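Notes to self after the Tuesday call (sharing in case useful).
The group wants a holo model before anyone commits to mutagenesis around the pocket. I volunteered. Ligand is heme C. Logging inputs and output together so the record is complete.
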Amino acid sequence: MTASMRLAAATFALAAGLGLAAAQARPLKITLPPETAAFKPGPNREVVMNNCTACHSSDYVQTQPRGPKFGKDFWTAEVNKMVKVYGAPIEDADIPKIVEYLTQTYSTASQ
Ligand code: HEC
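Result:
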């Protein structure tokens, strides 16, 4: 629950407590913040969307360092870590597709 949701809930509870809810209740308009980063377009993006969005946002990928040291080996190690260390349920056949997408889309400094 965000602070604004808590505030909205508290405001509603207060209004209800004063017996004003029926007369004054209006639909609450809650605007969620936009996602700061989504996975960029690229081949196998949908495989990444299916396997890499359950536990954290795409910001984790977006904020990794770029450059020659952060190519295929780096992303292979990252994906294996998600599976082995954090228990991500990713099928073996999907791993090369995910690594290919991440290497192509997120390894170059200008991306
Ligand atoms: C089962 C849950 C889960 C799934 C699914 C998952 N991750 Fe993670 N991921 C984590 C956790 C836990 C962390 C560490 C969070 C922290 O340190 O705050 C993490 C961290 C990361 C990081 C930050 C660097 C690091 O090594 O800590 C990257 C990059 C990342 N994940 C990429 C991916 C990619 C790519 C996928 C899809 C192949 C994926 N994650 C799927 C749980 C998951």
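Two things stood out.
The chain has two domains: 1-33, 45-106.
Residues 55 and 88 are 9 Å apart (CA to CA).
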